[in-house]
Design goal:
The structure is a single chain. By secondary structure, the protein is α+β, with helices and mostly antiparallel strands. 38% of the residues lie in helices and 28% in strands. The protein has a three-stranded antiparallel beta sheet. The protein has a three-stranded mixed beta sheet with strand order 2-6-3, with no helix packed on it. Helix 1 runs antiparallel to helix 2. The longest helix has 16 residues. The protein starts with a helix and ends with a helix.
Length: 104
């Protein structure tokens, strides 16, 4: 979206570009376009996982937003790109073992 491109050009000290970004957000909101609501857990209906990182949080937790997503009413215009908490190697091996046991 244009808003993202302008925001990426914006230096923290550039008040003019910051003002332009704010105005673009206002125009979008008047047209019914909103940012994807914040969620703590990954939701494939509104998120796109672009990376997974080890962390102390539960697997699938959203760690940070890389690129905001937008909705218009109930329609998803663009998914939110996020980094999610990865599963630990231990939990993956336990999960794999339990799946194998179910099919034996």
């Amino acid at each position: 979206m244009l808003v993202d491109r302008v925001a990426s050009l914006n230096d923290e000290h550039d008040e003019v570009l910051g003002s332009v970004v704010d105005e673009l957000h206002e125009v979008l909101e008047r047209r019914g376009v909103r940012r994807v609501p914040a969620r703590a857990d990954f939701d494939p209906d509104i998120h796109e996982a672009v990376a997974a990182e080890a962390s102390g949080r539960s697997p699938g937790s959203v760690l940070r937003v890389v690129r905001p997503g937008y909705v218009m009413g109930a329609r998803l215009l663009r998914p939110e790109q996020v980094v999610v908490a990865a599963r630990s190697a231990r939990s993956e091996s336990v999960e794999t073992e339990s799946r194998i046991e179910r099919f034996e």
